[in-house]
Amino acid sequence: xxxxxxxxxxxxxxxxxxxxxxxxxxxxxxxxxxxxxxxxxxxxxxxxxxxxxxxxxxxxxxxxxxxxxxxxxxxxxxxxxxxxxxxxx
Length: 89
Description:
The chain is an all-alpha fold. It has helices spanning 27-33, 37-88.
């Protein structure tokens, strides 16, 4: 492929595939099956990360639910005001 300023070369079209597998991990079993101290430490770190992620996701879900409830109240109040304005006409 000829490019600007006299350069030439091959045009690379990069692509990739990803395979993602989600599954539930039984941390107590993994800790019991770990043979070395480092393996147990690694599983404990993963457990603490999973708990932190769960807590963060729980807080976000609660915030979203609260915001949706507030939006529904505002929508309902706006609808009532429009109905009252139509009735006054």
